[in-house]
Design a protein that fits this description.
The protein is an alpha/beta fold and 465 residues long. It folds into 2 domains: 195 residues, Lyase, Ornithine Decarboxylase, Chain A, domain 1 (Beta Barrel); 236 residues, Alanine racemase (TIM Barrel, Alpha-Beta Barrel), CATH 3.20.20. The protein is 33% helix and 23% strand. The protein has 16 helices and 21 strands. The strands form 3 sheets. Strands 4, 13, 14, 15, 16, 17, 18, 19, 20 and 21 form a 10-stranded mixed beta sheet that branches. An 8-stranded parallel beta barrel has the order 5-6-7-8-9-10-11-12, surrounded by 5 helices. A 3-stranded antiparallel beta sheet has the order 1-2-3. Bound molecules: pyridoxal-5'-phosphate.
Length: 465
């Protein structure tokens, strides 16, 4: 029996896949050989493969278009990008090039909108869905945008108190949405999300407060199910409840025309993802459920909006590391120490137990070995030793001094915002350099260094030295 790394992968998964393949025995990511990048830029290295972002947006549009056509669906589908998943300018520019709308979450997001507008990368017709808890600075910034003529801004009320702030700050008419506080998944620490308005209060609130207002119209009902878009009883139950509420509201609120189902579309965090998750089926079920329910209730089918964050940007990202030392700490545990910190670069690993797709970049034909991947901070939690479904991590065995490179893939969403890109780092282990890869019209790769490795001066300044 063969026990090389490549044999393990070929026996356990369908490999190669469209985004992961081998070139001369070394890994490619979206068709891009990674070893030449490592030779040129070194490790640790954060990369963003920009064309993937547009591909994802078009894929989702295709699934919804197909599902809607098959069911003779009367409403439209709109793709909005959830900016908090990655605010970087190059990501936003790519999203806007693909004509996606935006969903924002805080006052400083409005600064991004203003800058994109000044750079002529966004115009006043862009739909901007304003979600999240609204502190006064945020509501004021939203009102200012509306007063400046961004007429397609939709503040989604997170609490009932919010509306008065818009009524006093906005000149003229404006549209609003309402967010339903969804029930959390059974294993979570609280029953109901702190975000949004209580399900049982929405109809009464609309009738007593929103409906009598002359200057505002309710156009969107929003819900976001934290567990993500999953084929589970819990997901479909919450979805049906929101849909039922949409139909009830629509009967008394003629201006309501959009149902926003939030984010949560998953992406591959293991090589068997495609065997276990069928995007077209999920989208078909969602569209079918909306169509059937609305027809049964006798209300027009709404436009469906999504705010995919991770789905848009996750698969564009990878982090490449070198294994710099092997440590055998007992008879069973071999540590592969990397040249960075996992806590600093991939905080979701220790924060929410997130699993990423980990693959070696070279040495695929070496024997395979079970390992623990160790980060360089002195924190106990700076490690990774379990894949999705609790499987152990296997990587190629290497002789002393033989270089081994590994990658954490599909990590393009949330990690920099959570780790405080450019800020202080645990044990002062710096952020890696960030390389952006694009393709020109002929498909030739274009490389741009977005940021170099974080230098000591950056941290010394923050620390007051
Ligand atoms: C309101 C809302 N919409 C969209 C998203 C994006 O979720 P995801 O990145 O899972 O697509 C989030 C994430 O927290 C959210 O809170």
């Amino acid at each position: 029996m063969q026990n090389r790394y490549i044999d393990l992968i070929e026996q356990a998964f369908v490999f190669p896949q469209s985004d992961f393949n081998l070139d001369n025995g070394n890994l490619t990511f979206h068709g891009l050989p990674l070893m030449p990048l490592i030779r040129e830029y070194g490790t640790p290295l954060r990369i963003t493969y920009l064309p993937k972002i547009g591909e994802q947006i078009e894929k989702a549009r295709g699934w919804f278009a197909q599902a809607m056509a098959e069911r003779g669906y009367q409403g439209q589908y709109h793709y909005a990008y959830c900016t908090k998943s990655s605010h970087f300018s190059f990501v936003m520019e790519e999203v806007l090039r693909h004509h996606a709308h935006l969903e924002i979450s805080s006052a400083y997001d409005v600064d991004i909108i203003e800058r994109l507008y000044l750079r002529k990368q966004l115009d006043k017709d862009k739909v901007i869905i304003c979600n999240g808890f609204k502190a006064p600075l945020y509501t004021q910034r939203i009102a200012k945008l509306i007063n400046l003529g961004f007429r397609r801004i939709i503040p989604v009320l997170d609490s009932k108190e919010e509306l008065n702030e818009y009524l006093s700050a906005i000149i003229g008419e404006f549209e609003i949405g309402l967010r339903i506080a969804s029930e959390e998944q059974p294993e979570f620490g609280v029953y109901t999300s702190r975000l949004g308005i209580r399900f049982t209060e929405i109809i009464e609130y609309y009738q007593q407060v929103i409906s009598p207002q002359q200057r505002t119209k309710l156009v969107m009902l929003h819900f976001f199910i934290n567990s993500g878009v999953k084929d589970t009883m819990y997901y479909w139950n919450e979805f049906r409840k929101a849909l039922k509420l949409y139909c009830e509201l629509k009967k008394i609120c003629p201006s309501l025309k959009a149902m926003n189902i939030g984010g949560g579309m998953p992406i591959p965090h293991s090589l068997d993802f495609a065997e276990n998750y069928d995007y077209e089926y999920m989208v078909g079920e969602m569209v079918g459920l909306v169509a059937d329910t609305c027809r049964r209730e006798g209300v027009p089918e709404p436009d469906i909006w999504t705010e995919f964050g991770q789905f848009t940007v996750g698969e564009s990202g990878a982090l490449l590391f070198s294994v710099v030392r092997e440590k055998q700490q007992n008879d069973r545990e071999t540590w592969y120490m990397i040249d960075s910190s996992l806590m600093n670069t991939l905080p979701d690993i220790y924060g929410i137990g997130q699993r990423f797709l980990v693959l070696p970049i070279n040495k695929w034909h070496n024997p395979v070995k079970r390992v623990q991947i160790g980060g360089q901070s002195c924190d106990q939690m700076d490690y990774y030793n379990q894949e999705v479904n609790g499987q152990d991590v296997y990587l190629p065995e290497v002789e002393m001094g033989e270089p081994l490179y590994i990658g954490f893939f599909n990590m393009g969403a949330y990690q920099e915002a959570l780790s405080g890109f450019g800020g202080l780092k645990h044990c002062l282990l710096p952020s890696p350099p960030h390389l952006i890869i694009d393709r020109d019209d002929n498909g030739t790769e274009i490389f741009r260094v977005f940021s170099d490795s974080q230098q000591p001066e950056a941290m010394m300044d923050i620390l007051g030295y």
